[in-house]
Amino acid sequence: MRLVAGGCFLLAAALGPAMAGELAAECPGHPEALGTSRVLTISPDDFKLIGSIQYKQTLPLADHEVVLTFDDGPIPPYSNSILDTLDSQCVKATYFMVGEMAHAYPAIARRIYNAGHTIGTHSQHHPYAFQNLSMQRVESEVDGGIASIDAALGDPKAVAPFFRIPGLGRTNAIEHYLEGKALVTWSADIDTNDWWRGTSASHLVKRAMRRLNEKGRGILLMHDIHPATAMALPALLKELKSQGYHVVQVVPTGERPAALPELVASPAEDKGNWPRVLKTSASTTSDETPLRHRIKRARASAHAALRHRIKKAHAGKRHRPAAVASMPASDHAASRASQQSQF
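Now predict its structure.
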């Protein structure tokens, strides 16, 4: 079943936007599913920097079209839960994977690809304050992440030339380096702030839809490592459908493998019951424990600085940043709390 999905994904890209849209809209056995309305194929030659949070250019989306993106995974069990939800609605997304996470959970990474999703990269370790790193470290993080995800998937052609800078910590030098490697640098148009500590699934959906409705279209930024995101996604997809939104999948030009050999998942990658809060169990192996801790520490620092950079980017466009102007008092409180202690 997943192999067929991967084949349809590549066929859709080859057919072009019009015919691909008709193919993507089909969801056998789920006539009421949200589905994927069309496939948008882009080239690094035409798109260098995309996402209106930071850049002038974004994807050429029509009104009420949305691109779903997920950062920082894969990690069980949340990545599996999110993938199950997307599969049930025949929705295709773009994943920006962290190299060490793909290395730790290659079976999940391959499952994501074989389900027909697009896989980009998000550095090797997701270091804090990416904009403050030396260029030598930047190059190591970018190249290392690509190499790890190449290895996890088993085929370099399966990795899209799409990169999202950790924490959106951009500099001109970083962007020039990414452009030199023929990578499309992705920011976003709408940040769901699903990483805020204490965010409930219902609040996440309301916040995401409010911000999306303000823009009417765009790239939605989420993370597949948070329980709140996994729990919110079914309701979010339902809201997208009820409010007339259409999901667009973005793929790169060039040939991609139809499917990848699947791997046997470890017990840690099972799709069974999972807690609301990620905890490192006593059965966690020695190499997984520091991995999770490093990701938690990096994000706790990186996301605390993320909103400041987004506000600064908006300040150059408006007298008052739109993300702040539209934020209710409860969101301001949540933001301050999240900067104190985040996952």
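The radius of gyration is 19 Å.
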